[in-house]
Design a protein that fits this description.
The chain is mainly alpha-helical. The chain contains ten helices and two strands, in the order αααααααββααα. The radius of gyration is 37 Å and the shape is elongated.
Length: 273
């Protein structure tokens, strides 16, 4: 069933590889590199959306951590508040996964193409013409010949690309993504070398994309600084506008109202006796 669904993708990949090899004259391995570049260029609009989504997530990371801290004892309430926060600020966390969606059928279709590459797809080409610099045959398993060298390149490129992808994740998520490439090594050793070459090339593209993004794409405004809890409620004796913590001077007591003027008795003028 899966093979039937992927048949259109297999046909397209086969024609692209044939065009890169016969018309442009690239070796088969470099044709896979060219195929990777074409795929990544086609999904550039999705990549731009991913970059903007990651920037918004990074911008609101302090507020998200505050929500998680506030409702850490109630997982359901925390998820509700997080989704509410996403809706209010028009954040789509799924945008970070958009570039991966169209690459999945390409990856699996390329696996089937390379599996029968020199038997059904291009039976006229002997296996010796499928190697790369006389070292790696793109149809053999990655565990054979010089394939382990390419596995090392894949692991390094995967770790580097994960570093840029995990910029907005917490520590636990970053650690998981850093360990996954090592775990995948035990899986990809049975893949065709050409498939590992495709994977390593797309990882290197992601690394270069991350470097360019850091230099050219403007970052969003800095997230507002969190106010310390002790200073959120101003003290009662604090001054109003200047924010100083000194006690305001007390107004002088009101003066007592002056009484009526006293009458001064005048002495009568007369002759002294």
């Amino acid at each position: 069933m899966i093979a039937g669904i992927l048949t259109p993708f297999e046909n397209v990949l086969t024609e692209v590889l044939k065009w890169l090899h016969t018309s442009i004259g690239l070796p088969w391995a470099w044709s896979i590199v060219g195929l990777t570049v074409i795929v990544r260029m086609l999904i550039v609009p999705l990549t731009v959306r991913q970059i903007h989504s990651m920037q918004r997530l990074q911008h609101y990371a302090p507020e998200m951590k505050e929500i998680q801290r506030k409702y850490k004892g109630d997982r359901q309430r925390m998820n509700e508040e997080v989704m509410k926060f996403y809706r209010e600020h028009k954040i789509n966390p799924a945008s970070a996964c958009l570039p991966m969606i169209p690459q999945l059928p390409v990856f699996f279709a390329l696996y089937f193409v390379l599996r029968d590459f020199d038997k059904e797809v291009f039976p006229d080409y002997p296996g010796s013409s499928l190697d790369w610099l006389g070292l790696v045959d793109i149809t053999e398993k990655a565990s054979e010949g010089w394939g382990p060298m390419l596995l090392v390149i894949y692991a390094g490129s995967q770790l580097a690309s994960t570093y840029f992808m995990a910029a907005t994740m917490d520590k636990m998520q970053r650690n998981i993504l850093m360990v996954l490439p090592i775990v995948f090594l035990f899986v990809v050793v049975s893949f065709p070398t050409g498939l590992v070459l495709y994977w390593a090339t797309t990882n290197l593209w992601t690394v270069g994309q991350g470097l360019v993004t850091r230099r050219l794409v403007p970052r969003g405004p800095a997230a507002p600084a969190r106010t310390p809890r002790s200073s959120r409620t101003p003290p009662k004796d604090a001054a109003g506008d200047d924010g100083a913590g000194t006690e305001a001077p007390k107004p002088p007591p009101p003066k007592a109202p002056a009484g009526p003027p006293r009458r001064v008795k005048r002495k009568k003028k007369g002759a002294r006796r």
